[in-house]
């Protein structure tokens, strides 16, 4: 009783001194509040910054941990802006799903809030390619990626559990997977593409977040952050330059921008701007490991980098790929003799490799360093290889490697994309690691010690006075009939609205708890194919809605099998162009990259 009333006194004095207001003002995010039906109130995740852990050189991709169902089960899913659907293995998948997944499969029967989507439901939406329909009239989906891995299964709805509530989302429950999807450690894919089936679209549509998100991938050593909602980049000392986010009738789910020029070592490559817009144009895809340029631009880029490297004392070395015939197509371009610790200190690499700049529309010129186009050679110390490849006339694809230590904000609300140099590892480190359970994260704003202002001196004076009064009050409280009831009534209304201090690290900074999707890093590999039936939503054979370059044959297979998703047996279903869902392949144990198309 003594403690409670002393606390009431102290809190009341702090409120009067303005501490309550400063806590609210200094908070990085507002705490989430429950809405009717368990849905989070709009905008409460507006400033949520989520840590991304793991070293890129040790892992093949970044993944998020989702908590799905009631009770919640956790699933590790690859973060991919080039994919539109989120999916995890279904309990019924059995041996048709890979044995290396991190978590147990999702069992709709074990979740009290789960429901399988029927073919006639208005939730039977898959984007491109369209949904299919099983013999049991269950809504089905299918996806196949450029390296020929695939995922197929049922659509289900269930609760995405957050610390302060839950929201119903629709996602895929896999009944078969092949290739890299089969062999990877991560459970599935977190689709961030622009489609109504995308998890980001569902969260924004439900009012959980504003229609903005950002990704910040660390360099070779990894770490970074996923930012959900309208995060103020200035909080992280990041200055964003914005270029327009383009709309495409042929590829509406991709994040496309207008690339106007490339600069290597301060010299512009003599390529006409329209070359970058061939095929599907210029696409940003976090799920693709490397970057792909039109042939003309690639040849000039390769020559410029090679000339610069050789002039600065480097020598050409053989690539790390196996010598088997199936890998001969890659022809990695590698250079030896670079500083051994260059990956830890990019300034050393900049002495032997040129700076790389990308010029976008609206006057945006993004400066990047060597590690934004190089990956570490796995067989030779001090050797690096180009992580940029020839894409023929198919288009320009800017993969994860191009945005190491670049914060990329996808401001879909204002139809723009922001770019800014950032210390992504530090941004991730500023966030307290998520706790287990329902995705609780305590986000803390770290600040250096500040000199005491007059107002702060006043606060400390109030605190000192409160301590004196509390001590005196403790002596008087030998009887409950003294001034306790009156004091209790006086300060009762002052108990509320005080944000708690951080329980972590003793740093004394203000903190807020928020529901989150925790990000980490994982691995990647492969395996087979499902053949769901088509329903009336399936596309017609022949001319494809993606344009002439994506037209399909009478058998439903794309005529351009290089970047588009193949038909998995759904009769007449049009296939969607897509890309491998792996980020920045391991720099220390580099994948063979048979998983990506380099023709």
From TrEMBL:
Signal sequence range: 1-20
Compositional bias (Basic and acidic residues): 586-599
Chain residue ranges for the region called Disordered: 523-599
Recorded topology in the membrane: Single-pass type I membrane protein
Ranges for domain Peptidase A1: 62-420
Biological-process GO terms, alphabetical: proteolysis
A Pfam family hit: TAXi_N
Subcellular location: Endomembrane system
Biased composition (Polar residues): 550-560
Transmembrane segments: 458-477
Annotated keywords: Aspartyl protease, Glycoprotein, Hydrolase, Membrane, Protease, Signal, Transmembrane, Transmembrane helix
Official protein name in the record: Acid protease
Species whose genome carries this gene: Coccomyxa subellipsoidea (strain C-169) (Green microalga)
């Amino acid at each position: 009783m003594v403690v409670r009333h002393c606390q009431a006194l102290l809190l009341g004095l702090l409120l009067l001194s303005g501490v309550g207001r400063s806590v609210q003002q200094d908070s990085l995010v507002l705490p989430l509040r429950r809405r009717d039906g368990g849905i989070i109130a709009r905008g409460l995740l507006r400033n949520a910054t989520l840590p991304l852990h793991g070293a890129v050189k040790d892992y093949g991709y970044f993944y998020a941990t989702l908590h799905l169902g009631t009770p919640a089960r956790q699933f590790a899913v690859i973060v991919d802006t080039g994919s539109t659907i989120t999916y995890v293995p279904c309990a019924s998948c059995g041996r048709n799903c890979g044995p290396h997944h991190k978590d147990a499969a999702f069992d709709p029967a074990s979740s009290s809030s789960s429901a399988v989507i029927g073919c006639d439901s208005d939730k039977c939406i898959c984007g491109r390619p369209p949904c299919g329909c099983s013999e049991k009239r269950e809504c089905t989906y299918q996806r196949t990626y450029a390296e020929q891995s695939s995922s197929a299964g049922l659509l289900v709805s269930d609760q995405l559990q957050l610390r302060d509530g839950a929201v119903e989302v629709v996602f895929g429950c896999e009944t078969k997977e092949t290739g890299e999807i089969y062999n990877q450690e991560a459970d599935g894919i977190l689709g961030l593409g622009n489609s109504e089936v995308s998890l980001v679209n569902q969260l924004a549509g439900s009012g959980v977040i504003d229609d903005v998100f950002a990704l910040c991938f660390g360099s070779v050593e990894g770490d970074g952050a996923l930012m959900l909602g309208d995060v103020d980049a200035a909080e992280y000392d990041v200055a964003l330059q914005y270029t327009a986010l383009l709309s495409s009738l042929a590829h509406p789910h991709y994040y496309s921008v207008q690339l106007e020029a490339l600069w290597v070592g301060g010299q512009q490559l003599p390529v006409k701007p329209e070359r970058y817009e061939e095929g599907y144009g210029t696409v940003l895809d976090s799920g693709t490991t490397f970057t792909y340029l039109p042939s003309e631009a690639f040849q000039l880029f390769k020559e410029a980098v090679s000339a610069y490297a050789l002039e600065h004392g480097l020598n050409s070395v053989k690539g790390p790929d196996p010598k088997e015939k199936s890998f001969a197509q890659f022809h990695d371009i590698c250079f030896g003799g670079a500083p051994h610790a260059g990956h830890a200190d990019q300034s050393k690499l900049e002495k032997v490799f040129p700076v790389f700049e990308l010029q976008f529309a609206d006057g945006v010129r993004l400066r990047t360093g060597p590690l934004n186009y190089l990956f570490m050679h796995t067989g030779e110390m001090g050797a690096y290889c180009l992580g940029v490849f020839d894409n023929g006339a198919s288009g320009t694809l800017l993969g994860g490697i191009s945005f190491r230590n670049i914060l990329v904000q996808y401001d879909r609300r204002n139809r723009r994309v922001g770019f800014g140099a950032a210390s992504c590892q530090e941004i991730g480190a500023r966030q307290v690691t998520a706790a287990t359970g329902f995705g609780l994260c305590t986000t803390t704003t770290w600040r250096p010690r500040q000199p005491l202002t007059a107002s702060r001196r006043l606060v400390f004076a109030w605190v000192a006075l409160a301590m004196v009064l509390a001590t005196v009050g403790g002596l008087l409280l030998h009887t409950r009939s003294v001034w306790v009831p009156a004091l209790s009534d006086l300060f009762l209304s002052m108990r509320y609205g005080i944000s708690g201090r951080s329980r972590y690290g003793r740093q004394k900074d203000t903190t807020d708890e928020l529901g989150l999707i925790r990000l980490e890093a994982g691995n990647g590999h492969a395996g087979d194919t499902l053949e769901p039936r088509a329903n009336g939503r399936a596309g017609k054979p022949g001319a494809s809605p993606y344009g002439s370059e994506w037209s399909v044959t009478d058998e439903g297979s794309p005529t351009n099998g290089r970047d588009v998703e193949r038909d998995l047996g759904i009769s007449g279903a049009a296939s969607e162009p897509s890309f491998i869902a792996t980020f920045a392949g391991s720099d220390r144990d580099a994948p063979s990259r048979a998983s990506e198309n380099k023709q």
